Amino acid sequence: MLARGKAGKLLLPLQQAILTKIVEKKIVWQKFYEYYRHVGAFCFKLSQNTTLLYEYITISAIPGKVFLHMDMPMKINELQLTNARQGHTIHNTEVFSKDGRWIVYDTRNDDTQIGSTGTIAMVNVHTGETRTLYQTVGQSAYGPGVGAATFSPVADRVLFIHGIRNADASRPYGMTRRTGVAIDIDHPGHPIFMDARDITPPFTKGALRGGTHAHSWSSDGQWISFTYNDYVMEQLARTDSTVADLRMVGVMVPGQVVVTDGGSMENNSGEYFSVAVTTVTESPTLGSNEVDKAFDECWIGIDGYFRPDGSKQRRAIAFQGNVRDTEGRTVTEIFVADLPDDLTKEQDGQPLAGTATTRPHVPVGVVQRRITHSMAGVEGPRHWLRTIPDGSMILYLAKDNRGIVQLFGVSPNGEEPRQVTANPFPVQGPFNSSPDGQWVAYPADNSILITEIATGNTHRITQRFEEVNKPVGAPNWSPDGKTIAYNRYVSEEDERFLQVFLLTTNAKIVW
Prior knowledge:
Strand content: 35-45%
InterPro entries: 6-blade_b-propeller_TolB-like, DUF3748, WD40
Family: Belongs to the TolB family.
Largest sheet: 5 strands, antiparallel
Oligomer: single chain
CATH architecture of the domain at 78-92 and 390-511: 6 Propeller
Structural class: mainly beta
Distance between the termini: 16 Å
CATH topology of the domain at 78-92 and 390-511: Neuraminidase
Number of helices: 2
Shape: globular
Protein name: WD40-like Beta Propeller Repeat
Radius of gyration: 24 Å
């Protein structure tokens, strides 16, 4: 149903016609849910017997005209994939296997429980079969702990956080005491240490000295990004007030690094060469582009992005960075780190491994740029930046002029940001763009919604859940774009467990 006319004159008659149609179909109109303008929508909630249906009218405001499109109930199938009385936490990205048949998860029942969680597993999206991939040795409330598992986009391999193996009450799991471990799914139980760790001076080039976290594969499966906290700086800060353990972003690339441990299990060798790729400082100059925290990053594009001059930057990271405004307030802005092809070259006097009094330095050729300059900066719930496949847009959360958290997009070249969503309610958590870059899926209003990035057209694709059972974390798209996986709590007697749900359609993104 498509209609157009002068603003304010066509809406009421058209609404009445729609409601008449609804009555003819013997569907009872319960209530208006919301009405708004500006690339928005008004929708109303319908009920027929016990089945909830959602109808949407999309409104694009153009001077003198109003365009309305009413979507019939969307053909979305929802399936509860897991049922065991335990947690099934999926990570914020890359949880599907390359063929879309498996979803990897850890057994946390709460996001904060990595240190006390000992199992990584996967579930088959077609049969519901579960397979345990890895269990920690000597697991206790103090560690080692595992979690935040992701699938390689090109191999049958999962990568996850693993706490340091000697964890106990005096050395518990923590931000500076974790590393990245992989499992080939055909060889469960056989850990592959990805990033090397060496906390013993003089340190080892290609190894880091703390904890890597939230690992993310590049689209070709060759490079891996992560956030990082440094154990050596953490310990130094206990006796030197001018020093702090500042969160950074790092990258690891193929290349074995050998570290001698001596049996302490504090250190480990790794199959990858790891470096920091962001520069941070304890005391950023007010009003400058210096940051004291770099975090929650993403790879830009499938293979980078195009610069304004038409040349290609093949590998780059977008990250959130905390700056100080001219009045000393912390503001989170979007930054880009352009990466060279070779991350193993050191700058003179700035060792990649750091020293006993300095954190790891960035390699030669890394260029760090600030691309947003806003008054309030990035706002809303914790989230990781995301991009579309061609790398032309970085997605993030910020408040609109009504104070509502929305999705925004900005070019890696630093052009004016564009508002993507205009919902009357805030985005409630992290999000992911579809494989073709046309859509973004996210939790809002205790539901899962999808928005067409180019137009702002938005659809609610689940019912609205009660607060206690609302979606948790980021919806994840399957590689073919036909399925979305997400977490939400399911109540059983006096307990709640995080379960994995699937939303499927018969065709690729025909929402």
